[in-house]
Amino acid sequence: MTKRTRKAAEAAGTVVYCGPPIKGVARQFTAYNNGIPEGLKAATEKNKVLGALIVPLEELPEAMRQLRQKSGRIYTLYQAVQGKT
Are the C-beta atoms of residues 40 and 51 closer than 8 Å to each other? Predict the structure, then answer.
Protein backbone atom coordinates (compact mmCIF):
# COMPACT_ATOMS: atom_id res chain seq x y z
CA MET A 1 0.00 0.00 0.00
CA THR A 2 1.46 3.32 -1.00
CA LYS A 3 1.61 6.24 1.37
CA ARG A 4 -1.37 7.90 -0.33
CA THR A 5 -3.37 4.66 -0.34
CA ARG A 6 -2.57 4.00 3.33
CA LYS A 7 -3.65 7.54 4.26
CA ALA A 8 -6.86 7.07 2.30
CA ALA A 9 -7.51 3.76 4.09
CA GLU A 10 -6.86 5.37 7.46
CA ALA A 11 -9.21 8.22 6.64
CA ALA A 12 -11.86 5.74 5.53
CA GLY A 13 -12.01 4.06 8.92
CA THR A 14 -10.72 0.83 10.37
CA VAL A 15 -7.55 -0.79 9.04
CA VAL A 16 -5.96 -4.11 10.03
CA TYR A 17 -2.28 -5.05 10.25
CA CYS A 18 -1.85 -8.46 8.55
CA GLY A 19 1.92 -8.84 8.81
CA PRO A 20 4.04 -10.87 11.20
CA PRO A 21 4.14 -9.75 14.85
CA ILE A 22 6.48 -6.86 15.64
CA LYS A 23 7.54 -7.20 19.26
CA GLY A 24 6.29 -4.28 21.30
CA VAL A 25 4.66 -2.64 18.27
CA ALA A 26 1.93 -4.72 16.61
CA ARG A 27 0.33 -8.13 16.59
CA GLN A 28 -1.01 -9.80 13.49
CA PHE A 29 -4.65 -8.98 12.69
CA THR A 30 -4.79 -6.01 15.07
CA ALA A 31 -7.44 -3.49 13.98
CA TYR A 32 -6.88 0.26 14.23
CA ASN A 33 -9.53 2.93 13.97
CA ASN A 34 -8.69 6.58 13.25
CA GLY A 35 -5.11 5.91 12.14
CA ILE A 36 -2.27 3.66 13.16
CA PRO A 37 -0.12 4.09 16.29
CA GLU A 38 3.21 5.90 16.09
CA GLY A 39 5.26 2.72 16.66
CA LEU A 40 3.70 0.98 13.68
CA LYS A 41 3.96 4.14 11.60
CA ALA A 42 7.71 4.30 12.35
CA ALA A 43 8.10 0.61 11.46
CA THR A 44 6.38 1.16 8.11
CA GLU A 45 8.74 4.02 7.36
CA LYS A 46 11.76 1.77 8.03
CA ASN A 47 10.33 -1.13 6.03
CA LYS A 48 7.94 0.04 3.30
CA VAL A 49 6.59 -3.50 2.75
CA LEU A 50 4.94 -3.40 6.19
CA GLY A 51 2.73 -0.59 4.96
CA ALA A 52 1.33 -2.86 2.28
CA LEU A 53 0.29 -5.30 5.00
CA ILE A 54 -2.07 -2.73 6.52
CA VAL A 55 -5.38 -3.28 4.77
CA PRO A 56 -8.87 -1.78 5.11
CA LEU A 57 -11.19 -3.88 7.24
CA GLU A 58 -13.24 -4.79 4.17
CA GLU A 59 -10.17 -6.52 2.64
CA LEU A 60 -9.37 -8.59 5.75
CA PRO A 61 -11.19 -11.79 4.67
CA GLU A 62 -9.25 -11.86 1.38
CA ALA A 63 -5.95 -11.16 3.14
CA MET A 64 -6.61 -13.98 5.62
CA ARG A 65 -7.52 -16.32 2.76
CA GLN A 66 -4.24 -15.56 1.00
CA LEU A 67 -2.23 -16.19 4.16
CA ARG A 68 -4.10 -19.42 4.88
CA GLN A 69 -3.66 -20.72 1.32
CA LYS A 70 -0.06 -19.48 1.13
CA SER A 71 -0.62 -17.69 -2.15
CA GLY A 72 -1.28 -14.20 -3.43
CA ARG A 73 0.11 -10.72 -2.94
CA ILE A 74 -0.41 -10.51 0.84
CA TYR A 75 1.34 -13.86 1.41
CA THR A 76 4.27 -12.81 -0.79
CA LEU A 77 4.62 -9.55 1.15
CA TYR A 78 4.30 -11.42 4.46
CA GLN A 79 7.14 -13.75 3.43
CA ALA A 80 9.25 -10.76 2.36
CA VAL A 81 9.01 -9.14 5.81
CA GLN A 82 9.30 -12.24 7.91
CA GLY A 83 12.68 -12.20 9.57
CA LYS A 84 13.20 -8.48 8.87
CA THR A 85 11.13 -7.11 11.75
Answer: no
